[in-house]
Amino acid sequence: MNDVARRAGVGVGTVSRVVNHSSSVTPETRARVEHAIDELGFRRNEIARSLRPGQAPKTIGMVAGDLTNPFYATVVKGAIAAAARQGYAVVIAMADEDPEAERLAIRGLLARGVAGLLLVPDKGDHGYMDQRGEGMGVPTVMVDRPASGVTRDVVLFDNEAAGRIATEHLLMHGHTRIGVLVAPSHYTTGWRLRGFRNAMRGAGQRVDDALVLRLREGSSQSAEEGCRRLLARADAPSALFTTTSFLTLGALRAMRSVPVHPALVGFDDFPYAELLPTPITVVAGDAEDLGWTAATRLLRRIEEHDLPVARLMLPVTLRERGSGEAAPSVDLATTR
């Protein structure tokens, strides 16, 4: 506050009245103080104001993806459990892939005086986090994907391996015409697609780009529409690899309209996948462990600021259940 007061040419009491939205400040003075606040990147620490002298905040912030997605909800669950084990609470904010909403969420968490940040970064440039007042110096760990423009710890799954494992599994069961549904993403699904391509080349198979469907949206509806187009082709694929759980659900809806169902391997598990008439084969990592590992890394960095920046890659595994094990031309409808 002293810096803001000097920059604005007012007393500290005036700055305090501005940040507390007092009506006793003239519009001209308020504008001058707010300009100084913006220039200096000042933010009020809401938690620190309530702490006793010498008491450090025991809260971390987390900006997650869409919490209606079971994957992110499970990641958050793991982070909360790891934080609680060390006496920390977690304040959750959601940005839903909106760069401006993400930036506002980060500012709000920093205003609460969080000791560190867990961030599922959107596709924008995060160079602003190295600016004063925008997270500079606050321990931060990226979750599920790295951020562009900044160097921070990141904890993520081996997405390239996921695409390779899924494709090799389908190849092993005799499939060479494999359709791929790819959700829009600046990182994760792109690496899963790379794993698919590498597995196909490694097996001496040509990749038919007509069967690689890059969707405009990562919704189940978009996947259903796209999958219907693939399955309506005269040279329809005998197998599908879906790069997110939402796309898997869309593909399953589309498959109801065709007499012969393709084999299917999806990325990421989803509720009741093993309870369907033909249980769904997936490649997946442990989402709860992803959150746990990220929070554990953040808490360690809070204690040891000079740790080397780390990229922690968690494994994925194949969960065979039936849908990915059908040979070409097998009519799975007869098993439903």
From TrEMBL:
Keywords: DNA-binding, Transcription, Transcription regulation. InterPro entries: HTH_LacI (IPR000843), LacI/GalR-like_sensor (IPR046335), Lambda_DNA-bd_dom_sf (IPR010982), Peripla_BP_I (IPR028082). GO terms for molecular function: DNA-binding transcription factor activity; transcription cis-regulatory region binding. The lineage of its organism: Bacteria, Bacillati, Actinomycetota, Actinomycetes, Micrococcales. It comes from the Bacteria. It comes from Humibacter ginsenosidimutans. PROSITE patterns: HTH_LACI_1, HTH_LACI_2. Residues 1-53 form the HTH lacI-type domain. SUPFAM superfamilies: lambda repressor-like DNA-binding domains, Periplasmic binding protein-like I. This is LacI family transcriptional regulator.
